[in-house]
Specification:
Elements: H1 3-18, H2 25-32, H3 36-42, H4 46-66, H5 74-91, H6 93-102, H7 108-134, H8 143-155, H9 157-160, H10 169-182
Helix pairs in contact: 1-2, 1-4, 1-6, 4-5, 4-6, 4-7, 5-6, 5-7, 5-8, 5-10, 7-8
Length: 189
């Protein structure tokens, strides 16, 4: 593994554990066994490291979610989107968490780059939901609101989901899908 990749991985881990603001360049250099000068040889600033982590996380998330667009049945496409999102989160947890938690710490230019990718991912979800409404697979809903609800469920997992716990992230996503699809309604009540 090259030094640049090691820096990104260790930074994502530290940003996830301590928070971006609480992690110093010195903390990162010590964790890597590098000098601060060596870090600055690869990245101009701590923010540049966070931006790179965020862009990598979001590009991977977009790729994972775009596979769901290829699924013809809207219900199956929504399930595929949700499980891909959850799987990506679990497999890339430090990058994913650092990206979500660090968004406000980015400069306006950096934030604009990450928001564009985030919006693309959300747009893919909305396309699935819109298709489902148009085809009658889903009842008429505010697609933007429904999309935000789905992403809120999935993204909030950063607060409580523990890899290696009793369930995999994909299983949680399947249960969320069932909750969304069938609701809390009990037949006959």
């Amino acid at each position: 593994m090259d030094t640049r990749t090691r820096i990104l991985q260790e930074a994502a881990r530290l940003f996830t554990e301590k928070g971006y603001e609480a992690t110093s360049v010195q903390d990162l250099a010590e964790a890597l066994g590098l000098s601060k000068a060596a870090l600055y040889h690869h990245f101009r600033s701590k923010e540049e490291i966070l931006l790179e982590i965020s862009l990598l996380a979001l590009k991977g998330l977009v790729r994972a979610g775009e596979e769901a667009l290829k699924v013809e049945d809207p219900k199956e496409a929504l399930l595929a989107f949700m499980t891909a999102h959850a799987r990506y989160f679990e497999e890339n947890r430090p990058f994913f968490v650092a990206m979500l938690q660090g968004l406000e710490s980015l400069s306006p230019e950096g934030r604009a780059k990450t928001v564009a990718l985030r919006d693309r991912h959300e747009g893919n979800l909305r396309a699935i939901l819109r298709r489902g409404v148009e085809e009658g697979a889903f009842r008429p809903v505010d697609v933007a609101l429904a999309g935000r609800a789905v992403l809120s469920l999935l993204n909030w997992m950063i607060r409580w989901f523990k890899p290696g716990g009793p369930k995999r992230a994909e299983e949680v996503a399947r249960e969320y899908f069932d909750l969304i699809h069938r609701g809390l309604h009990v037949e006959g009540s």
